[in-house]
């Protein structure tokens, strides 16, 4: 992977930092020696793992691709990093992202954008675009991303790799820089479902350091061949085949459904009637929570501080003005407005009530089916710059991915190769809460 980084990183720009070659090779060698000495090695023995730059790594810069945290070096490791290291995985470096995970194309990075390694004129998706591009370009074997409204599944879809968001609470977020706390989850990006399952198995589990982390007994990964010979009911929601969906995306979904039917699974129509409200609900809740979470960046504790402030107010205002990019500012303003006295009932609280209706849609659908299958995004990977001037058009691309976050459900994106040579298109499978083991087995069948 180091040779591949040397060959492709200059054009793709998936990483914001890569650890030193000697150090990395020494770590790999140490694992080899353990194995040679007959010692037991962990499940990730010697495998490189690229880490999205919003996951804290002790001693390694964690910038969130923001000027605000450009020089921030965390004094501790996130729980997922401790787990990867304990499993003998090798932390390869940090990957580029939309600033503070806000975006769908990695074009909001303050450190330059990432290109789709399968077509350099196209975006890799976002916000975990660097992680997905690194996996797709063979610059790493595994990667971690975070998914608040699709940021693992959508870049995995655009780059033709596998990306999975677990049930809310399945993976500790201790050390993940918070964007929208009721939605954020960490998950794996990999070349195939089996690899994603391997990393998922390592990072999941209860952690006392994250109060939202669940303490449950349901297995996260079980027998991946479990789907074989079984007949599941696959729910297909009518609301997700919208007029605006690209024909190539619809064809990929249809192809996957046909494949699953041929394997003996039954297709059942389901309804998710509140889908139309998902985008405004998501953007209100995510922006409101972001405006609160990002209030900690004020120039006094850590992060960017403006030079020669005249007063504390001046320091806070200028530090934030200089440190945050346009999209982050837009969300902070939107979120602050939605939470402000006199408006919270009208916006934030109303959004929470609609969120409940969206969750109930899924409960009703899962009474009729075992899994739900639909697109990850309405369009395949779009061209660089195509949507940067139109934030609303960018937000609308998230219609099929934000619902799983609003409902807290596990979901996976599995690529469907395209015969015309354009980048693969991901198809999504969503499962009821805590059914990751079955979801992974189903995803193996989708491949
Ligand atoms: N594109 C969505 C947003 O901009 C999702 C981002 C994410 O999942 N981190 O908020």
TrEMBL record:
Active site: 52, 127, 151
Enzymatic class: ligase
Domain of life: Bacteria
Composition bias, Polar residues: 104-115
Keywords, in A-Z order: ATP-binding, Ligase, Nucleotide-binding, Protein biosynthesis, Transferase
Stretches for region Disordered: 104-127
Protein name, UniProt field: Glutamyl-tRNA(Gln) amidotransferase subunit A
GO cellular component: glutamyl-tRNA(Gln) amidotransferase complex
EC number(s) reported in the record: 6.3.5.7
Annotated family: Belongs to the amidase family. GatA subfamily.
Record field: catalytic activity: L-glutamyl-tRNA(Gln) + L-glutamine + ATP + H2O = L-glutaminyl-tRNA(Gln) + L-glutamate + ADP + phosphate + H(+)
InterPro entries: Amidase, Amidase_CS, Amidase_dom, AS_sf, GatA
Listed GO MF terms: ATP binding; glutaminyl-tRNA synthase (glutamine-hydrolyzing) activity; transferase activity
Residues covered by the Amidase domain: 1-440
Gene Ontology terms: biological process: translation
Quaternary structure, from the entry: Heterotrimer of A, B and C subunits.
Role of this protein: Allows the formation of correctly charged Gln-tRNA(Gln) through the transamidation of misacylated Glu-tRNA(Gln) in organisms which lack glutaminyl-tRNA synthetase. The reaction takes place in the presence of glutamine and ATP through an activated gamma-phospho-Glu-tRNA(Gln).
Isomerase among keywords: no
Entry-linked Pfam families: Amidase (PF01425)
